[in-house]
């Protein structure tokens, strides 16, 4: 290996064309998955105060957003419903209703914009009156096996409506295998599963819970089912299990604080890994921008590039549309 001055690493950085030519990682709109929040009604846009720049849209608006996504080369949208209060219950039964807000949005999207992938979240928190992802026992503990059974029904309901990717975000043990078996049995052989394999009990989900209306309802935290931020080896075990059970791809969530997990998952398993740059991360960037502490375009592209560099196939991000516009320039 040569030495300075024969070797000057700054040489290849000296011009834009050369930097472009030497880039080890590329970020394109095809790397982006855009999470969208659904509201009841028609012609409705409800801004979310804790997620500045993000709104809930009624189904017609969701269709319009998906067309924007398509036109900018974003391959896939992720859907999250804000279920009306009177349709939430202890058992989250609305998740099984073939005409629930989620299913209506899926059908409208597959009808109007079939070329955009539709990823749907499987977990009961948008449907329960207590804001937890599953069924509770008398002590408030989230029951695993009983919940998993309902999640299978929820996944089949979404698949029947036309969902392309089922994304279980609930962290119940064994649910990926149960969902895969049920999808196969019902003939949904090409419906993918992207499991939220390593999902941490995080302080970064607050604005999301505002968006789906579960924040005020939630008693306690989700630490008995979501992972402890102290653990990395456990994340590898979670990923191994979900892959054995039939996950097509796995997700790490939140994103930026867990880049080490992304890198380790990718090196260990060589499977498609996705990151969720979650609501609190988005809000942090927007707060920094509002405070004059950061420049939006730069930090949006830099953080998304970080996920790619760490090994991600793609990223769920509320900045998807903005990033795609920047990348189109
Ligand atoms: C529901 C779910 C959550 C998120 C995605 N799916 C919240 C939670 O687990 O409490 C968070 C996404 C975000 O913060 O952007 N299980």
From TrEMBL:
Pfam families: ALAD
InterPro entries assigned to the protein according to its UniProt record, in alphabetical order: ALAD, ALAD_AS, Aldolase_TIM
Active site residues of this protein: 199, 253
PROSITE patterns (alphabetical): D_ALA_DEHYDRATASE
GO molecular function, one term: zinc ion binding
Binding annotation for Mg(2+): 238
Keywords: Heme biosynthesis, Lyase, Magnesium, Metal-binding, Porphyrin biosynthesis
Any one Gene Ontology cellular component term annotated for this protein: cytosol
Pathway: Porphyrin-containing compound metabolism; protoporphyrin-IX biosynthesis; coproporphyrinogen-III from 5-aminolevulinate: step 1/4
Protein name: Delta-aminolevulinic acid dehydratase
């Amino acid at each position: 290996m040569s030495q300075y001055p024969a070797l000057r690493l700054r040489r290849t950085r000296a011009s834009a064309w050369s930097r472009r030519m030497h880039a080890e990682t590329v970020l394109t709109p095809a790397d982006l998955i855009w999470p969208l929040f659904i509201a009841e009604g028609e012609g409705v846009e409800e801004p979310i105060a804790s997620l500045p720049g993000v709104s809930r849209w009624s189904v017609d608006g969701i269709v319009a957003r998906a067309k924007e996504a398509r036109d900018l080369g974003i391959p896939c949208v992720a859907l999250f419903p804000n279920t009306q209060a009177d349709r939430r219950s202890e058992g989250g039964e609305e998740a099984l209703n073939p005409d629930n807000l989620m299913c209506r949005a899926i059908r409208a999207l597959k009808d109007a914009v079939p070329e955009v992938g539709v990823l749907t979240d499987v977990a009961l928190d948008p449907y329960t009156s207590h804001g937890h992802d599953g069924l509770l026992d008398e002590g408030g503990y989230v029951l695993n096996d009983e919940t998993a059974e309902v999640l299978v029904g929820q996944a089949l309901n979404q698949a029947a409506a036309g969902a392309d990717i089922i994304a279980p975000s609930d962290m119940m043990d064994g649910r990926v295998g149960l969902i895969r078996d049920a999808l196969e049995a019902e003939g949904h052989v090409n419906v993918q599963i992207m499991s939220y394999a390593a999902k941490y009990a995080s302080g970064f989900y607050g604005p999301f819970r505002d968006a789906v209306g579960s924040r005020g309802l939630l008693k306690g935290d989700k630490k008995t089912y979501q992972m402890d931020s102290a653990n990395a080896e456990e994340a590898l075990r979670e990923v191994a299990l979900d892959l054995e059970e039939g996950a097509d791809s796995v997700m790490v969530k939140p994103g930026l604080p867990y880049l080490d997990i992304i890198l380790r998952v990718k090196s260990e398993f060589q499977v498609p890994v996705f990151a969720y740059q979650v609501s609190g991360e988005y809000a942090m960037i927007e707060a920094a921008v509002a405070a004059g502490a950061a420049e939006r375009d730069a930090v949006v592209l830099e953080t998304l590039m970080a996920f790619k560099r760490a090994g991600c196939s793609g990223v769920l991000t509320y900045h998807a549309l903005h990033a795609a516009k920047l990348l189109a320039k």
